[in-house]
Specification:
The protein has eight helices and no strands. It has helices at about 1-20, 25-45, 50-70, 75-95, 100-125, 125-150, 155-180, 185-205.
């Protein structure tokens, strides 16, 4: 309980730093939040292969967030975010042991196509990065959903929910940045980003 409280407070201070345009505070607590999640999964997670993929995803996310905070080398932090999501995807992939359920993938793809065409008029040269990021996020959510449909455990449900929250965070960021500015969007984007990571970590602990 105390570990989750510390993680929540660290995430809150990062969001407050973003609200006050305090870059050092926001970045410090952003990295600290992910570091606390990393320590938690290493100390309380089972000795299984998916743990190491999640640890890798957290480490790469810390690197990507650092680059993003300084708004430098956009291609580097974009690729880093993709790599983090692929590492999370592998964490769910290694848990699969049955037949794939394709209707879930079809549902996720249909929803992503609708979201893409809603954003299309504002994307311009960003079409390719958005398609790539969206494809990786859909792949991640599909694998997490497959684990949940096969196992039907609380941990699997938390993991699937975490991937959906991550998609929602990315979608809000895209809408706010490229289509229609949203009031206090940073609260949802930053808060849901941390919440998504926390749910994915919780999926292998509980």
């Amino acid at each position: 309980m105390w570990s989750w409280l510390a993680i929540g407070l660290s995430g809150l201070y990062s969001v407050l730093g973003a609200k006050q345009a305090n870059l050092p505070q926001s970045l410090l607590f952003k990295v600290l939040t992910l570091l606390l999640l990393l320590i938690l999964v290493l100390t309380e997670g089972p000795s299984a292969s998916q743990i190491y993929w999640i640890v890798g995803g957290l480490l790469v996310s810390m690197f990507a967030d650092t680059l993003h905070s300084f708004k430098s080398r956009k291609s580097f932090y974009f690729v880093s975010y993709l790599l983090a999501q692929l590492l999370y995807s592998q964490a769910f992939w290694v848990q699969l042991n049955g037949e794939m359920i394709w209707w879930l993938l079809a549902l996720l793809l249909a929803a992503s196509v609708v979201a893409f065409f809603l954003l299309l008029p504002q994307l311009d040269s960003l079409v390719f990065p958005v398609v790539v990021m969206g494809g990786v996020l859909v792949f991640l959510a599909w694998l997490a959903g497959e684990v949940w449909l096969q196992a039907a455990t609380r941990g699997a449900a938390l993991g699937f929910l975490g991937t959906l929250v991550m998609i929602g965070s990315a979608l809000t960021y895209a809408i706010h940045g490229y289509r229609k500015p949203m009031k206090r969007a940073y609260l949802w984007v930053s808060g849901s980003y941390f919440f998504a990571h926390a749910l994915i970590v919780a999926s292998v602990i509980y």
